[in-house]
Amino acid sequence: MKIGVLGGDGYCGWATALYLSQKGHSVAIVDSYVRRHWDHELGVQTLTPIQPLPERLAAWEQLTGKRIEVFSGDITEYDFLASFLESFRPDAVVHFAEQRSAPYSMIDRKHAVFTQVNNVVGTLNLLFALREILPSCHLVKLGTMGEYGTPNIDIEEGYIAIEHNGRKDVLPFPKQPGSFYHLSKVHDSHNIMFTCRVWGLRATDLNQGVVYGTLTSEVERDEALINRFDYDEVFGTVLNRFCAQAAIGHPLTVYGKGGQTRGYLDIRDTVRCIEIACLNPAAPGEFRVFNQFTEQFTVLELAQTVQAAARKLDLSVKIDHLPDPRVEAEEHYYNARHSKLIDLGLQPHLLSESLLDSLINVALKYRDRINPALFLPQVNWRSARNERRAARDARLEGAAASASSLRDRQS
Ligand code: NAD
Ligand code: USQ
Q1: Whole-prediction pTM value?
Q2: Mean pLDDT for the chain overall
């Protein structure tokens, strides 16, 4: 197949682009590299020393003889996105190209607005471009399990059968997202569903759980191909963070009681799920939803699992319970269905198989690059403190500027 990977310089996108290329698909990456810019903005860096995209791709081509095309640009710019579709004409477009951190979206007004504009406008542009240029191209869109929140009933795959006042219907499963980022995914899902119904586009929304791990068969082949491993409080996801913490003997940062339950999957299953979705496309007009995760854990269970694995390597780590900076249930019912990808042939990798190789050993290898100051949570959901701090900083800067201009005039 010809497959466009939007966001192919990022964590899931890079592993996916190489996997699809290795499987013989013709792949093009679209990316604006904005994610590398956010690392600079926050003063953080991935634990693993990732190479610039041209160098990564040159290494891949040298190793395998396979060429991956690149379209550098921002998908919120419609003309750029349209020219990519006109030129590459993919059978499927896998859309990873969004701002994906919940804490980033909760820093202040500016970051919330940016997240929603970047994500919602990028996806809307893609929907319009598909309608105009390639209406039969299958959109494989990365959503998130966090769209559903943590309801006190079983979570279905996208839709729920409801009987109300004696009448029945199958309706979208209710959404209760927990951050402005997660909300952006809900807005995307609604826009995609609408355009499948009204324009006959075909789409699969992959409600993915939290991804962990660094290694896939492809990125393991050469140091120049290594993938991201984020461990900072904004972009680091929980299991990656716990493994980086264990590698330097830092206490594991469980937020609150640690009963927060989420679906998780190995990055090796992410790439396989994407291929399964591409090879089995949605029908024209169909908006299909798969819940993409393989196991569910509480945060405390993850911490205890990492602690036990670390002990086998003679690493002693404590578990700390920090006040939860997020507004979320710390103990709750959670049972989410996830059978559609298994029915299509997914054979999950379990956490017990990858914890050491793909996580703790990688963290140990690069432990000298770990900055422990990046472990403590700074972004808080409850207060507008971040906003007030930004306003105060601006006022202080303004006051300093007028004082200096007054001094200049006086001298
Ligand atoms: P990432 O930040 O590592 O990668 C995203 C890539 O998209 C980056 O390379 C970035 O430069 C690019 N990008 C962002 N906005 C863009 C724009 N407007 N135009 C062009 N390029 C743009 O993120 P990731 O962890 O690989 O996540 C990829 C997708 O999967 C996201 O949509 C995310 O919501 C979803 N997802 C991720 C996880 C996870 O645990 N990592 C879990 C569930 C869902
Ligand atoms: N948590 C801790 N300690 C930490 C970090 C996180 O206890 O040091 C807790 C959080 O409070 C939360 C849980 O771990 O309850 C998961 O947090 P996370 O940062 O690993 O994941 P989340 O913010 O949900 O976001 C990540 C990705 C996002 C994706 C989502 C899938 O960044 O792109 O959409 O996972 S899901 O969680 O299913 O919505």
Answers
A1: 0.94
A2: 94
